[in-house]
């Protein structure tokens, strides 16, 4: 929902092309149209830029359009964060990008094993850790109180507020909306200052925003509803929160770096590796269940988790990029497990299947014969 390109400009990178591909509507058809629009626009851009390697990150539907275009135009693809497992359509998109990509950077040992199980070439897989952790584990901002005051109010103390971030599950939109409604009811009852981020642009988000407005969240004294928080500031907000609640991947991945308690709702992150700071509420089908989870988690402090990285991912990725031989064949090779060769229907096979080998081990002489199925010695 925001102008995140400004973060690229702030890091002194030139943006050669900007594409507007997101079709508004926030339903399944809009997602398909967005991918289609990107596929129409990308060939011209890639022809002009002629990249040696295309770096594609994550599991979003816009990344699928980019990977598809690059693969069809014979551009090498490096995919970051493949091999992970989660819920919703993102799982399928992530694995589809893996099949299109030529090189892989993964975050965990399990993800690496999944990529190998998916028949990807082990020599083209780098276990680097999550690039976000390079920033998370070095984030030392003494001025975090001013960030908290900016987004939540001057009277809010550390560990005494909640960050809520919930997205639709595109494979079960109706349940997503109901679960979001129950989450907001529980947060209202819990009566703590809460920063609520708007859901992403996946199908179902429009209905979720309607739920927010129906409950008056944007005008409620305990809530601050925002569409975007800059990453550097978001890090500080979750690092000093009393709890994070929702179903965003950052709850089960990045927030573990700070030991902040997390309540993970529903199935959107099913299969993700998590630290001990994450409490799962798989069903999230009653307000009381979510409220009870808030009472258990709020204000706790857990050990910092390094499941997803040790803070040195970027140097590893740069070294991996430099090692790629741009002259090696572009054609992917899949490392399939050995399978029994198909037996072709030739005359030798026919003779073999229509006869048997007989061996007589009696006496001092060894006698061997080929006997037909009609018991004739051939």
TrEMBL record:
Q: Which residues form the UDP-N-acetylglucosamine 2-epimerase domain?
A: 4-322
What the entry lists under SUPFAM superfamilies is as follows:
Actin-like ATPase domain, UDP-Glycosyltransferase/glycogen phosphorylase
Q: Which domain of life is it from?
A: Eukaryota
Per the record, the coiled-coil ranges are: none
Task: List GO molecular-function terms, semicolon-separated.
Answer: hydrolase activity, hydrolyzing O-glycosyl compounds; kinase activity
| Keyword Transferase listed | yes
Does Ribosomal protein appear among the keywords? no
The alphabetical list of record keywords is:
Kinase, Transferase
Q: Which GO biological-process labels does this protein carry?
A: UDP-N-acetylglucosamine metabolic process
CDD domains assigned: GTB_UDP-GlcNAc_2-Epimerase (cd03786)
Query: What Pfam families does this protein map onto?
Result: Epimerase_2
NCBIfam families the UniProt entry points to: NeuC_NnaA
Return the protein name: GLCNE kinase
Q: Which organism is it from?
A: Catharus fuscescens
The organism's taxonomy opens as: Eukaryota, Metazoa, Chordata, Craniata, Vertebrata
Quote the gene name from the UniProt entry: Gne
């Amino acid at each position: 929902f925001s102008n995140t390109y400004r973060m690229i400009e702030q890091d002194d990178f030139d943006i050669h092309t900007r594409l507007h591909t997101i079709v508004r509507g926030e339903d399944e058809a809009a997602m398909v149209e967005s991918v289609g629009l990107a596929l129409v626009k990308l060939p011209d851009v890639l022809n002009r830029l002629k990249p040696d390697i295309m770096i594609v990150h994550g599991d979003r539907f816009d990344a699928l359009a980019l990977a598809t275009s690059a693969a069809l135009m014979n551009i090498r693809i490096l995919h970051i964060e493949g091999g992970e497992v989660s819920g919703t359509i993102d799982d399928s998109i992530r694995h589809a990008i893996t099949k299109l990509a030529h090189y892989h950077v993964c975050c965990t040992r399990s993800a690496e094993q999944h990529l190998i199980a998916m028949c990807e070439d082990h020599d083209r897989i780098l276990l680097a850790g999550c690039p976000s952790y390079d920033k998370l584990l070095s984030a030392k901002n003494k001025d975090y109180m001013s960030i908290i005051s900016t987004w939540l109010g001057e009277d809010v103390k550390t560990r005494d507020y909640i960050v809520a971030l919930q997205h639709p599950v595109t494979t079960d939109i109706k349940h997503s909306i109901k679960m979001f409604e129950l989450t907001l009811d529980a947060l209202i009852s819990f009566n703590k200052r809460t920063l609520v981020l708007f859901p992403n642009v996946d199908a179902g988000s429009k209905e979720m925003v309607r739920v927010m407005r129906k409950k008056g969240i944007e005008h409620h004294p305990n809530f601050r509803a925002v569409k975007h928080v800059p990453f550097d500031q978001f890090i500080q907000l979750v690092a000093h929160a009393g709890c994070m609640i929702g179903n965003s991947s950052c709850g089960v991945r990045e927030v573990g770096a700070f030991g902040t308690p997390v309540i993970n709702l529903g199935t959107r992150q099913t299969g993700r590796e998590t630290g001990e700071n994450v409490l799962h509420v798989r069903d999230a089908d009653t307000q009381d269940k979510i409220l009870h989870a808030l009472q258990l988690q709020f204000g706790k402090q857990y050990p910092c988790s390094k499941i997803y990285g040790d803070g040195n991912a970027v140097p590893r990725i740069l070294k991996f990029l430099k090692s790629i031989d741009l002259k090696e064949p572009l054609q992917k090779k899949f490392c399939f497990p050995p399978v029994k060769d198909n037996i072709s229907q030739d005359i030798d096979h026919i003779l073999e299947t229509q006869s048997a080998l007989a061996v007589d081990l009696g006496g001092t002489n060894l006698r061997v014969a080929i006997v037909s199925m009609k018991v004739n010695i051939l």
